[in-house]
Amino acid sequence: MVQKVLSMSQQLLIGEALKYAAHNVADREAFIDGDHRLTYGELLTRSLHLAGWLQAQGIGVDDKVGCLLKNGLPFVELYFGVSLSGGVFVPVNFRLGSKEMEYILNQSDVKILFVEEEFIDSVRSIMQNLSQVKIIVPIKAENLEFEINTIPYEAIFSTTTEYKSVNLTDDDAHAIIYTSGTTGKPKGAVLTHKNFYMNTMNKLYHSQPRKGSRQLIIPPLFHVAALSSLLQNCLIEGTIIIHREFQPDVVLKTVQYEKIETMFMVPAMWNFLFQVPNLSDYDLSSMTNCSLGGAICPIEIKKRILQVFKNATILEAFGQTEMSPSTTYLAGEDALRKTESVGKPSINVRVRIVDNEMNDVPVGEVGEIVYQGPTTMKEYYKNEEATEEAFKGGWFHSGDLVRMDEEGYIYVVDRKKDMIISGGENIYPKELEDVLYSHPDILEAAVVGIPDPTWGETVKAYIVLKSGKQMTEEQVIQFCQSSIASYKKPRAIEFMESLPRNAAGKVLKMVLRTGAYQ
Asked: Could you tell me which of 304, 513, 320 has the C-alpha nearest to residue 412?
């Protein structure tokens, strides 16, 4: 037993980080959600109870536990509870359509699903198709009847459980985060305990937060960037205030009354914040770090951040889910001096910029950025082909085309896979194009991202109709919304006689983006 405990202490494990924090600062507030405040001691007690209950339901090493939850204390408790149980956490994007949720829950082998009350109907509509889910845990709803076992969340804490320590290593899977691809269904990036731990250590190195600092979390926790903050909070023994949704005026009030020191938002959210009337009336002097990412931030927004938060510096992060997620950082005065850059490689992340033959390209030339290091995902879950493709040549291939200047700063030029980032959400044109091609009146379709002053990018679809057919822009948008999540639908439609193509027949999306075809 002594050897087992010693072995556990030598691993970089998420659950152990919570134990350390609870031992050191048991009475300190760890997470605050509205009127509910949870100390580290209370969080550990509830997480261990939840872990014991999960174990009693058959959850062990590598068993999957999913959730469709908005930000809140149940999400936090479940995150740590699953980790302590030995299971693998699968947070699902609640903005997806029910069929998209169905695919992820089945592909990831989720056995127990925790569900927010407002998503119960979506789950019910696909319940008969969920092949492995054995237990549903609604967070607040009572007396719900499903075809399978159901237990309300709080009822779990009235049960008698016995937690059993699990012999994990930091190379074991910790979470599966799904990221859509351009060639089919979403892929589940398997991230290990070490992946999360090292990404957090990297961020702490670059951001240098105060021990015990107070952070505000606003973006959805199902995103890996927000999710990684839960571990960070334990390591600095800080306090996180959680917002369920983004309300700019509430954000400002929270900063003032909770003395927030750092918060992360995508550029669009920062922009909305500055539209709040009487912005100057709020006391924002506690803020020391304004973190942003998810899209390249316009210099005007950066300047505004520094004007409004006079005691803060800017920290920009760039990366992707498969890298846990941050790979480069741009901080301090570089935020304005190198405003179009995504910064320099993070500590503990090895970076190369290569051509198609894996040769390093000269400084200033464009190539694909590839990565190695302890934050690199383990694999794509049950997708050996995609995993092998991603790790060709022994490096993880990002799909991002970048260049590096003489000082070592990296600039994103384009995305090999044409991903669109709108308001911090990843949107993949191929997925939307497949939907458009399924309409009987549409002959061809191409989807691109176009600049948007609010969201960074927005979705535009170019449509070629079949001979004799007619559609309106609104009809196209409504058709898309019936098949995919609303945030992925096109915001602009342009009908064309034909799509611009090169000699090989490939659609010239760069031409569409620039409007050079006109």
From this structure: 320
Cα separations (Å) of 337 from 299, 341, 342? Answer: 10, 9, 12
For the domain covering 420-514, report its CATH number.
3.30.300.30
Taking only the tens place, the pLDDT of each residue in 161-210 is 999 999 999 999 999 999 864 345 889 999 999 999 999 999 999 999 99
The torsion defined by the Cα of 221, 388, 102 and 266, in degrees rounded to 10, comes to: 30
Q: 2-15+36-160+169-191 is classed in which CATH architecture?
A: 3-Layer(aba) Sandwich (3.40)
* Residues 387, 380 contacting (CB under 8 angstroms): yes
- Backbone region of residue 388 per phi and psi (left: phi > 0; alpha: psi in -120 to 50; beta: other values): alpha
Query: Does the pLDDT at position 432 exceed 80?
Result: yes
Contact 356, 333 (CB under 8 A): no
C-alpha to C-alpha distance for 281 and 365, rounded to whole angstroms: 47
Q: What would the CATH number be for the domain defined by 246-415?
A: 3.40.50.12780
* DSSP 8-state assignment for residue 281: G
| Shared fold status for 2-15+36-160+169-191 and 246-415 | yes
Q: Average pLDDT, stretch 394-406?
A: 94
Enter the tokens of residue 187.
């892929």
Between 126-140, 298-312, 495-509, the lowest mean confidence (pLDDT) is in 495-509
Rounded Cα distance, 505 and 482, in Å: 30
| In the predicted structure, residue 30 carries a pLDDT above the cut 60 | yes
Average pLDDT, the chain: 91
Q: What does DSSP assign to residue 296? A: P
DSSP of 232-245:
HHHHTT-EEEE-SS
CA–CA gap between residue 293 and residue 229 (Å, rounded): 14
Query: Which pLDDT band holds residue 516 (cuts at 50, 70, 90)?
Result: low
Beta bridge partners of 289: 262, 313
Domain assignments of the chain as residue spans, ordered by start: 2-15+36-160+169-191, 246-415, 420-514
396: part of which helix (H) or strand (E)? strand 396-404
- In angstroms, the CA 139 to CA 50 distance is 13
Q: In this predicted structure, what is the pLDDT of residue 93?
A: 92
Whether the CB-CB separation of 490 and 480 falls below 8 Å is answered with yes
